[in-house]
Specification:
alpha/beta; six-stranded mixed sheet; about 30% strand
Length: about 240
């Protein structure tokens, strides 16, 4: 398993607000090692989504460092250009959005296969296509949906669509997994199943995982729990001490 870690150091992010600036992230510090899950809670508008956007390279912070460490190199995500950030998201960052945002015309299998073709300028070889299909089928099996591979989103339940969303984020073997409110649209049983899946894939695949949630039901299962209030992040429960 490749050693990975996400380290956020003194990250600050502001937005224009009339004649002034609104602080979304106020000198945020965070460290998540590979295979562990850090949950972030807090009221709406407190900066949780801004933090996810920053660590996903979707927004560049005003200041601070966002370091993604692997066995090969350490990259400061805050310094990447848009093109470099997009390339890194395709290769090393898996994002699970609150809504699955699946492509209506594609089957469950095709949703995953499409991830391997993003950003490519040339047609892949038959061997590459077979390898991509094999990996997609393996991931569908991991999330318990191998028998649903030919179904399109409209034919699947909300829980099944969210599981495909997670499998899709894992398609390129990310070192960083960023998850936004994965259970918000699910009932209690399906939500618990999705959390079980996230815990399993994060720990067995060694991804440093950052999970934003309003649901406190499963926080005791996380490695650390942070709370965000007015852009300030504080440790609520350290590793294996959440209650």
């Amino acid at each position: 398993m490749t050693a990975t870690a996400l380290t956020v150091t003194d990250a600050t992010l502001t937005y224009p607000d009339g004649i002034g600036r609104l602080t979304a992230l106020d000198h945020v510090h965070l460290h998540v090692t590979g295979g562990s899950i850090a949950a972030i809670t807090g009221p709406s508008g407190s900066g949780k989504s801004s933090l996810l956007a920053v660590v996903s390279t979707l927004i560049r912070p005003d200041s601070g460092r966002i370091e993604l460490e692997t066995a090969d190199a350490t990259v400061d995500l805050a310094t990447l250009t848009r093109r470099e950030g997009a390339a890194l998201r395709r290769s090393s960052i898996g994002i699970v959005f609150q809504q699955p945002n699946l492509i209506p015309a594609l089957t469950a299998l095709e949703q995953l296969e499409a991830m391997s073709h993003l950003g490519q300028r040339f047609f892949t070889s038959p061997v590459q296509r077979r390898e991509t299909r094999t990996r997609a089928m393996e991931l569908l099996d991991v999330v318990g949906l191998a028998d649903q591979q030919a179904k399109r989103p409209a034919q699947l339940s909300g829980g099944q669509r969210q599981r495909i969303n997670i499998a899709r984020a894992l398609m390129n073997a990310p070192t960083l997994l960023v998850i936004d409110e994965p259970t918000s649209a699910l009932d209690t049983e399906r939500g618990a199943a999705v959390i079980d899946l996230i815990l399993t894939v994060a720990r067995t695949r060694g991804a440093a995982t950052l999970l934003v949630t309003h649901d406190r039901t499963h926080l005791h299962r996380m490695d650390a729990v942070y709370r965000m209030v007015d852009g300030t992040l504080s440790l609520e429960h350290p590793a294996h001490a959440a209650a």
